[in-house]
Amino acid sequence: ILSFSHRVDSVSLQCLCCFRFQFIVPKKWQKNRPVCIHLAGTGDHFFWRRRTLMARPMVKEAGMASLLLESPYYGYRKPKDQLRSCLKNVSDLLVMGGALILESTVLLRWLEREGYWPLGMTGISMGGYMASLAVTNWPKPIPLIPCLSWSTASSVFTTGVLSKAVNWKELEKQYAINSVYEEEIIKLLEYCGVDSFKMASEFAKNDDSLSLSGDVRVSVGQSARAGGEAEAELVDQVLSSGTSGGGLGYLP
Question: What pTM did the predictor assign?
Answer without folding.
Answer: 0.67
